[in-house]
Amino acid sequence: MARDTVIVLKSINYSEADRVLTVFGKYTGKFTLFAKGIRKINSKNRGNIQTLNVCDISFYEGKGLPLLTESQLIYSPDTDILKNRIEDIKRVLDILGKILQENDPNQKVFNMLESLCKKNFDIESVNRFRLIFLKEMGYLGDFSLCSVCESKSDLEYIDLISFALLCKNCYSKTGNGYRLGDNIYIEKKFTQALDVYIKRIIEEI
Ligand SMILES: [Zn+2]
Q1: Domains contained in the chain, number
Q2: Distance 146 CA to ligand 1 centre (A)
Q3: Which residue, 75, 99, 129, sits at the end of a domain?
Q4: What is the 178 CA–ligand 1 centroid distance (Å)?
Q5: Alpha helix locations (H) across the chain?
Q6: Residue ranges of the DNA replication/recombination mediator RecO N-terminal domain (predicted)?
Q7: What is the pTM of this model?
Q8: Is residue 192 assigned to a domain?
């Protein structure tokens, strides 16, 4: 019997009583799990295994898909708040569905996703998560250098096409940057540019 702490990413009904889940485990990474009988009214696991819940689970690894045996709820996001953040949640689930590889654990990404669930997917946390996720997966460069001259100082601009940082000096030469404000993560222009950047990555995969 294996155990892990997981975040439920996807849940698909299968036959009358079962569900096929996609979960992201802290130590096991992303994997598919069969939840037999979970849709029955008396299932102990029924309320625990909802999308974006954080749970401790036990599962049996035999032939075929791993089989959920037990679960214990650790955290469930506020569904009333989530109802109004469907677009922002989709922004996160899309990259986890398409870019995150199966059976490739990443505790940094797991911990950030767990804290994102606890912050109910506010846009600032969503954008911070997306940037760090892309960096962890190798789709973003070094954020401590100017992407043109490699200077480490006066990094006050970001190129919203390549998502690379620019120093004050290079910005004035290329004119191709966006000034980093007090909190760029909540700016609509930043969110949209990141959407476009991610869409391009997903299309190339
Ligand atoms: Zn520079």
Answers
A1: 2
A2: 5
A3: 75
A4: 14
A5: 79-82, 86-98, 107-118, 123-136, 168-174, 188-204
A6: 3-76
A7: 0.91
A8: yes
